[in-house]
Amino acid sequence: MRRLKNVLVTGGCGFIGSNFVRYLLSRPNFEGVVVNLDKLTYAGNPENLKDILSLYPGRYVFVKGDICDFELLKKIFNAYQIDTIVHFAAESHVDRSILGPEPFIETNIRGTFCLLEAARLYWKEKKEACLFYHISTDEVYGSLGEKGFFTEQTPYRPNSPYSASKAASDHLVRAYYKTYGLPVIISNCTNNYGPFQFPEKLIPLTILNALEGKPIPVYGKGENVRDWIYVGDHCEAIWLLLRKGKIGEQYNIGGENERSNIEVVSLICDLLDEVLGPFNGNPRRSLITFVKDRPGHDFRYSMDITKIKTSLGWYPKTNFREGLKKTIRWYLEHQDWVFQIRSGTYQNWVNEFYGRIKHAF
Ligand code: NAD
Ligand code: DAU
Question: Can you give the CATH number for the domain in which 43 is found?
Answer without folding.
Answer: 3.40.50.720
